[in-house]
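Researcher: Please translate sequence to structure tokens.
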Amino acid sequence: MKKPLLHALQGHTDGPVPIWLMRQAGRYLPEYRKLREQAGDFLNLCYSPDLAAEVTLQPIKRFGFDAAILFSDILVVPDGLGQKVWFVVGEGPRLEPLGDGKALAKLDPGKMMSKLTPVFETVSRVKSELDDKTALVGFCGAPWTVATYMIAGAGTKEQAPARLWAYKNRDDFSTLIDLLVESSILYLKGQIKAGAEVLQIFDSWAGSLTEGERQAWCLTPIERITQAIKADHPDIPIIGFLRGAPGANVKLAGINAIDGVGIDTACDLEQTRREVQTLKTVQGNLDPIALLAGGASLDAGIDLVLEKLGGGPLVFNLGHGILPDTPIGHVTHLVERVRAYSKENRGV
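Model: Translation complete:
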């Protein structure tokens, strides 16, 4: 059988339920923390192919997930465009905020691909190390989510600076989104060329927008990106993930070029089964807090996802990224329980 993740994203249910976790390469692993210290700076780690490849492979070596996801960050795109990006320990990303259209005009997409060459090298190195059952997932941040950081210079409550800019300076904001759409297409195609077999587009702040604004700044840009990818790479599956906007998942599933819909912890699983999983493969949605807690709560959370969604095309994942304090033993238990389900219910 082909790689379980690829099989599931084609809509099949006759193989094992594949499992991987968002942020599976990260701070909960002691081997990651060691390499993070060695790199010194977070962006240095992202741009160091030897180290980034090792970080990407660490959870595969430890847990045997069905996919490795490129270790990088959504903000390498604005960094590649020429916006100053850095990370503050314990606080997160910082950027030199886009104050107006003049700052926007200084961004240079012509230099981005050369800046991101180390990321593509990481993809190539990881692909060469994976076995014939483990898929390689590339990714980017969706234009709306990346734009929120570029405008505010950091993560902000309710993404108010970007929302205000979109309302007051619609032409400039549209220009920024267009730039990020085209940059994301180039970036994702570069990852495919380097060896990525699946793509995921993260719109982590989709939930902060009204329905009309979400269509304009989230769904339409994602559709443009995915259509452009599929025009050149029709066999590459693409997963879309809108965090905090469960009502938009049906629209996301309706995008022809989307193969999988990532669901967060706010999603009603029965409704998801009826309205989303009948259209596309679903990915999700165990609560990362349940994984942190372990015990009976973890088992109940795993079993609920499998009970509600295991009869259809499913990729088991979290509803968002794994938390840094998550015990390693809980992750091992999660993988074993999902594997046992596939053996008992799918015979594989």
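Researcher: Any highlights?
Model: Residues 158 and 208 are 6 Å apart (CA to CA).
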